[in-house]
Amino acid sequence: MLAELKGLNEECGLFAIFGHERAAELTFYGLHALQHRGQQGAGIVTSNGEQLSIHKGVGLVNSIFNEQNLATLKGTSAIGHVRYATEEQSGFENVQPLLFRSQISSMALAHNGEIVNDFALRSQLEAQGSILQTTSDTEIIAHLIKRGGYLALEEAIKQALGMVKGAYAFVLLTEDQLFVALDPYGLRPLSIGKVDDAYVVASETCAFDLVGAEYVREVKPGELIVIDKNGLNSTMFASPMQRALCSMEYVYFSRPDSDLNGINVHASRKLMGKQLAKEASIEADVVTGVPDSSISAAIGYAEESGIPYELGLIKNRYIGRTFIEPNQSSREEGVKMKLSPVRGIVNGKRVVMIDDSIVRGTTSMRIVRLLKEAGATEVHVRIASPPIKNPCFYGVDTTASEDLLASQYSIEEMAEKIGADSLAFLSVEGLENALVDEDSIETGICKACFTGRYPTEIYPREVNANGKGAGA
Ligand code: AMP
Ligand code: SF4
C-alpha cells in the first residue's frame, strides 16, 4: 500500500564552494568525484558577486562540461549538482541547480533528498497562485522561500525549511552568499571542507580529496549555514533530532574512500562483512564479492571466516551502475553486460558470494547463474545488509514494496528464486554495530527500509490531498 504512495525520487550529489578563483573548475572536479550518485544530469551555477551564470545538461559530468562552457561560468562561488532520476522525472527541466532570477536578487538552489509532504505543499502553493514548472522538490522550496517576501533571505529560508518535512541536503547561492542546510534528522550526508581560504561543501568527502580540500566537519541536522565575505556563520532552523543518516549510504551508495559522519565507508563495509561471517558462516573454498560496492564486505567476510578472498567476478568498467537504468528490461541487460565470472577461480569450487543488498533480486539471480555456468559447485549468497522489506520515502529509489523480493518471500523462498544453495542476510543489530556509537545522538542511522520504522512522519499522498498528514 505505502509503495503506491511513494513520491518522486532524488538521490543526488551536491557540491558548493565560496571564495575561490577557480570556483567553476573545482565544482566540475567535485561533481566528477560524485558522479556515482547520479548519472542522468548535472549542472553548475556560479556567481561573480553581481550576477549568476548557469550551465547544465543531461548526461555525465564529462559530457556536459568542457573548457569553453566552464570559462563562461564566471565568479568565485558556485554550486553544483549531479542527478539521479527515475523515469518519470528524467527531463531536462528537472536538472539542477534551478535558477530563479528576479529584479532584487537571483538565487540558485540544488538539493539531494525527498520532501515527504510535497503533495500538500504543492497544492497549497498552487492554490495561492504559484505556477510550478517542474516536478522537482527543489522548486517547491524556492517558492516557499520567495513567499517570505521582504524577510531577510536567511529568515525566509528558515521559515520555508520549517514547512518542509523529509530528507534533504540543500545549497542555495545568491550573488554574494552561500546557504547550506540539512534536514533535522540528518538523513542525507553533507560535509564541510576548506581549500586554500575557501569553504567547500559536498555530499561525500571523496569530492574534497579530488579538489585538495581538508575536511572540516559535518553539517549538523537542523543547521543552516551562511557563508559570505564575513566567513561562516552557523544557525539552527530546527531542533536537531537523533541523527538518522541513511544506512544505505554506507551499504551501497557512497564511495569507499568517503568518510560519512566520521566513519570511513570501506571500513564500515568491512565490519559488516566480518559481522556477517560471524552470523552466517558456511563451509566453502573461496569468498568473492560483487564489484564494486561489495568488495569491502567480501574482504571482511574472508578475513573473519578464514576462507580466502578471490576475484571471482570482474566488472566491465565502461558501463554504469545497473540501477541507474530506470526500467526493468534495461536493468536486466545491464547486469549481463556488467559482470563476468572468472572461470579459472570458481570452476569446481564452493563459492561464498557476497553482495551488499537484494532489492528485486535481479542481480543475485543473474550472478548465481553466472557462477554456476562457470563451474562453481555450490554458491552460497551472503548479503551484507538486512532484507529490504519497505519502501524508502527519503529519496532512495528502492522500488515499490511489491517488487521488493524480501517483502514477498521468506529467506528460503528467496534462496530458491535466486538459485542459491543457501542465503543469509546481516542482522539489523549487526548493521548497527558497524555504524552506531550507542552513546552519541550524532551517529544514529535510518534503517526504515529494513525495519519499517520511519524516523519522520510520512505523508501519504491521498491523505495529503485532504490536507491531513499521517504516520507510516
Ligand atoms: P537487485 O538486482 O534489484 O536485487 O538490486 C540489488 C543490487 O543493486 C545490489 O547489487 C546493489 O549493489 C544495488 N543496489 C541496492 N540498492 C540500490 C539502490 N537503492 N539504488 C541503486 N542500486 C542499488
Ligand atoms: Fe536510507 Fe532505507 Fe532510510 Fe531510505 S529508508 S533513507 S534507503 S535507510
From TrEMBL:
SUPFAM superfamilies named among the record's database cross-references: N-terminal nucleophile aminohydrolases (Ntn hydrolases), PRTase-like
Ranges of residues in domain Glutamine amidotransferase type-2: 12-230
Substrates-to-products reaction catalysed: 5-phospho-beta-D-ribosylamine + L-glutamate + diphosphate = 5-phospho-alpha-D-ribose 1-diphosphate + L-glutamine + H2O
Cofactor: [4Fe-4S] cluster; Mg(2+)
Binding site for [4Fe-4S] cluster: 246, 392, 446, 449
Active site per UniProt: 12 (nucleophile)
Domain of life: Bacteria
Keyword Glycoprotein: no
Positions contributing to Mg(2+) binding: 293, 355-356
Keywords: 4Fe-4S, Glutamine amidotransferase, Glycosyltransferase, Iron, Iron-sulfur, Magnesium, Metal-binding, Purine biosynthesis, Transferase
Biochemical pathway: Purine metabolism; IMP biosynthesis via de novo pathway; N(1)-(5-phospho-D-ribosyl)glycinamide from 5-phospho-alpha-D-ribose 1-diphosphate: step 1/2
UniProt keyword ATP-binding, yes or no: no
E.C. code: 2.4.2.14
Listed PROSITE patterns: GATASE_TYPE_2
Cofactor binding note from Swiss-Prot or TrEMBL: Binds 1 [4Fe-4S] cluster per subunit.
UniProt cross-references to CDD domains, sorted A to Z: GPATase_N, PRTases_typeI
Homology family: In the C-terminal section; belongs to the purine/pyrimidine phosphoribosyltransferase family.
PANTHER family on file: AMIDOPHOSPHORIBOSYLTRANSFERASE
Chain's role: Catalyzes the formation of phosphoribosylamine from phosphoribosylpyrophosphate (PRPP) and glutamine.
Designated name of the protein: Amidophosphoribosyltransferase
Record gene name: purF
